[in-house]
Amino acid sequence: MIDLIHVTKHFGDAVAVDDISLSVARGELCVLVGTSGCGKSTTLRMINRLIEHSEGEIHIDGQQIREFREESLRRRMGYAIQSTGLFPHWTVARNIGLVPRLLKWPAARIQARVEELMALLGLDLEEFADKYPHQLSGGQAQRVGVARALAADPDILLMDEPFGALDPLTREGLQEELRELQGRLEKTIVFVTHDMDEALRLADHLVVMHQGRIKQQGRPLELLREPADAFVESLLGGEGRGLKEAALLPVSQRMLPLGPRLLARERIGQQASLREALSLMLWRHAERLTVVDDDDLPVGELSLRRLVGVRSDD
Amino acid sequence: MTECRRLVVPLCWLSLLLAATLGMGQLEGLFRVIEPDSRQVIYDRAGFLTLLGRHLSVVGVAAVLAILIGVGAAIAVTRERGRDFLPLVSQLASMGQTFPPVAVLALAVPVLGFGTLPIIVALLLYGLLPIVRNTLAGILGIEASVREAARGMGMSSGQILRQVELPLAAPVILAGIRTSVTINIATAAIGATVGASNLGDPIISGIVNGNTAYVIQGALLIGLLAISVDSLFSRLPSPGGR
Ligand SMILES: Nc1ncnc2c1ncn2[C@@H]1O[C@H](COP(=O)(O)OP(=O)(O)OP(=O)(O)O)[C@@H](O)[C@H]1O
Ligand SMILES: [Mg+2]
């Protein structure tokens, strides 16, 4: 869907992005991480031509992006940035309806779409539709920014730290929303973040950048287990990687079928992560947990030994 | 209702101006006190209403030209293609202001002859700076993220200019126009020295003939005109909805 082939960007003598190659498949969520100034935003902006790449080729659906009209290229890609860039003289509703209006949708359809998106992002229509951006909190503004990016239902989304100003709860809610959306609607997303937990939770395809180059890319678990070098290892959390990996694995993967023994008192859902299971064990001083399904019926058990990955139980 | 209330102050000034223009003759007794020795105490070589009309039209024409040229130039040099000329244009505009209008008149008369043309040129040059400066400030002051989002959403440069840059810069641009016009209402009086007849006439004639009453009449009307226009500007609804 999106292919970057040996792409380089110079600003004068400085090289911001240095010979990167990257393919994002349709329906894939690709997350770029790396130290500040490593070229993540530049990479993103080259895809919608806010910045023209100096060398190499960028393709969308197999077609070079330079063959598209700049405006039409951008209108089919949602773009959300940390500083939101909401128009201060427009209401929330008008801001969200920007791209549909550019695409000349009929007014009634725009209105319906705006209402739908505000509901999706948890913005009360009555309360927010007629507010101006300066009347919003940072988090509300970011949600409006995301809604605006989604408005014309683009098949590609480019997001540059879109959840940066949100509290952990709202942030997790939106991350889930984004995953769900992307799974359901087959969106292809390139997402930049500084938050490694966010990156690991969201990514199908994780790209670690450093000084304009791609250090390593692949599935999050691959990178956690086999970091290419010390930089990737430390960026992914160094010694903390065990917990980060545990956060990605569901309890169902390590649990054992119910045995003859008495059920353990503490229960955990089978969709919960191993990290949550470990936390519960630490908190309750329990070595065993009963795993339950969505209806709270026991389906298995998880011991500390199994959880940490010791093969034979007892 | 509120629309009417916001216009109360400017309307007061305007009616005061009109009353003074039409009723100056009624004040003959007052001006006699100021100027007891002169045979004539009310300026009558032309009606005050005519002078007011000419004054307004000179300032108006100069203002329209200054707005077209000033806003146009500022827009041009803030486009990607015109960026190279940005320093030049802001310098030119400030030179226009440091150059005294009298000097412009002196230079323009030999070329353009006597009459209203040289004063329009002088006012145009003089009024350009506040407009150019404010338009530049207004457009360049827009947050970079707003422009980035506008481009990133796929707006064309024309759409960005019309829907984003101009509405956001409008209050600042309007303030520049207001300064420019108000200054020029006063400055236009010197046009009387080169034969452009306007509210400067009674002042110049009063100075030449030593008739203080004439000077006061001209100055009073110019002052009232400047205040009326300024207060009209201050009540203009600011586009942009904030
Ligand atoms: N318009 C520009 N002109 C010159 N240099 C630029 C420009 N934009 C970015 N750079 C440089 O390119 C490099 C990469 O910048 P970029 O914004 O892509 O970093 P980033 O990875 O997004 O960083 P952060 O995590 O801090 O947002 C930086 O060294 C930056 O200074
Ligand atoms: Mg960045």
Automatic annotation (TrEMBL), chain A:
The keyword Kinase does not apply. Keywords: ATP-binding, Nucleotide-binding, Transport. Gene3D superfamilies: P-loop containing nucleotide triphosphate hydrolases (3.40.50.300). The keyword Ligase does not apply. PROSITE patterns: ABC_TRANSPORTER_1, ABC_TRANSPORTER_2. GO terms for biological process: quaternary ammonium group transport. Residues 2-236 form the ABC transporter domain. InterPro entries: AAA+_ATPase (IPR003593), ABC_transporter-like_ATP-bd (IPR003439), ABC_transporter-like_CS (IPR017871), CBS_dom_sf (IPR046342), P-loop_NTPase (IPR027417). One of its GO terms (molecular function) is ATP binding. Belongs to the ABC transporter superfamily. This is ABC transporter ATP-binding protein. It comes from Halomonas urmiana.
From TrEMBL, chain B:
The keyword Membrane applies. One of its GO terms (biological process) is transmembrane transport. Belongs to the binding-protein-dependent transport system permease family. InterPro entries: ABC_transp_perm/SBD, MetI-like, MetI-like_sf. Keywords: Membrane, Transmembrane, Transmembrane helix, Transport. It comes from Halomonas urmiana. The keyword Transmembrane applies. It is found in: Cell membrane. It is a multi-pass membrane protein. The chain crosses the membrane at residues 56-78, 99-126, 214-233. The lineage of its organism: Bacteria, Pseudomonadati, Pseudomonadota, Gammaproteobacteria, Oceanospirillales. It comes from the Bacteria. One of its GO terms (cellular component) is plasma membrane. This is ABC transporter permease. Residues 52-233 form the ABC transmembrane type-1 domain.
